[in-house]
Amino acid sequence: KVHSTSCGSLFKSLLKMGGEESVKLLGVWSSPYSRRVELALKLKGVPFESVEEDLSKKSALLMKCNPVHKKIPVLLHNGKSIVESLIILEYIDETWKGRPLLPQDPYERAKARFWAKFIDDKLMPGVWKTFLSKEEEREENKEEACELLRSLESELKDKKYFGGDDIGYLDIAANVVAFWIQRVESVVGIDLLNQDSFPILCKWIERLYHEIPLMKECLPPKEKHLVYIKTRYEAATATNGNL
Asked: Which residues form the GST N-terminal domain (predicted)?
């Protein structure tokens, strides 16, 4: 169910005059989940304003618009808020009809939703667990993460993209697999997603980077991102926290 609520007077200054649409994205530059929404909006050709949040001091707007989770991303569309990145992707696809993101076939659409949820609920927690594991637990955790990656790779098979001949909903959802994993690997020194073990996934990542200009545009600046990851990783390992 889409979480949608009016945020009242806080949004009055956000709405454009003349009845035009107001679209704003509350996010964080380093978040793959914010970047998912950014990419979907750009693929759809939807003009929007990006509002950078500071999660160490969450704004009144964010707290008002996502009172349950108090997290980014939040999409503000004409004074209404939609939260959770995968739900936002579906909202974008249903609201702006040009260039569909989800498959048109109901079965394929259901599969795309399943794998997107698999990425967020199973695969990425397994990957982060490997990156943060102690040395004596690392090999076992790494094998579990590789098994999850193999499951995702089996869905790609011989397709150019998860969406077929062009990127779609699942390719956008898998941005965290395509780029964040390899950047974290380079910081923590754990080789997980490589050409020998995952040739199909690696070829897909190469296509995304070289054939989809918007994908590259919606990535955080690499050097700045690596510094951020290193800082987060050192803090997480010191406190047994999360990346």
From this structure: 21-100
